[in-house]
């Protein structure tokens, strides 16, 4: 499970630099970089992770791409190697990022804890179990599944309460926004360690949400 002890700022800097280098190399050469041995050695444990690309200094929603793996199925270096490219070129909401665009994009990395099913007798109990700024959510019903990262309800001027967060997560799963009130809908929570660039190719910081 990610913790501040497991991932130092120095390691966050290493991972963010690796992420950017991989994206820009792919956009220039149409292939991924070779993963350095030191990164394979240091980040071989399995984690879920997401790479988010945001346009720099853009009012409103700056999102330009976000792709990740929820479950801790692959080594962290392998996940980042894959999803960094996917976030830039395969997010179905956006056209592929261009190399020139990377001059105006900041990168955010979310390293996830394994999702945990929130067990309740009454859906109203979710309100007391979910903490804004700490938890990310997954809504699942049948074959439909949607995820929102812990930073979504607080970033970019949003000030969502728990009910809004639940509704938006259901919508992300292509469910009715009130589907979280149905016992057939499963809600999972998870947490994340976050690192981000303060500006394109700039200082990397650990991101705190509360």
Q: What does this entry look like structurally?
A:
The chain is of the alpha+beta class and about 210 residues long. It has helices spanning about 10-30, 35-40, 75-90, 125-130, 160-170, and strands spanning about 50-55, 65-70, 105-110, 115, 135-140, 145-150, 185-190, 190-195, 205. The strands form 2 sheets. The chain has a 5-stranded antiparallel β-sheet with strand order 2-1-3-8-9. Strands 4-7-5-6 form a 4-stranded antiparallel β-sheet, covered by helices on one side. β8 (about 190-195) and β9 (about 205) form a beta hairpin. α1 crosses α3.
Condensed summary:
By secondary structure, the protein is an alpha+beta fold.
Give the integer mean of the pLDDT values.
Answer: 93
Order of SSEs: HHEEHEEHEEHEEE
SS elements, strand count:
9
Classify the beta-strand content into a percent band: 15-25%
Task: Sum up the overall morphology in one term.
Answer: globular
Low-pLDDT regions: none
Descriptive keywords:
five-stranded antiparallel sheet; 210 residues; Dna Ligase, domain 1; alpha+beta
SSE topology sketch:
Blueprint: H1 9-29, H2 37-42, E1 48-55, E2 63-69, H3 76-89, E3 105-112, E4 116-117, H4 126-129, E5 136-141, E6 144-148, H5 162-172, E7 186-190, E8 192-197, E9 204-206
Antiparallel strand pairs: 1-2, 1-3, 3-8, 4-7, 5-6, 5-7, 8-9
Helix pairs in contact: 1-3
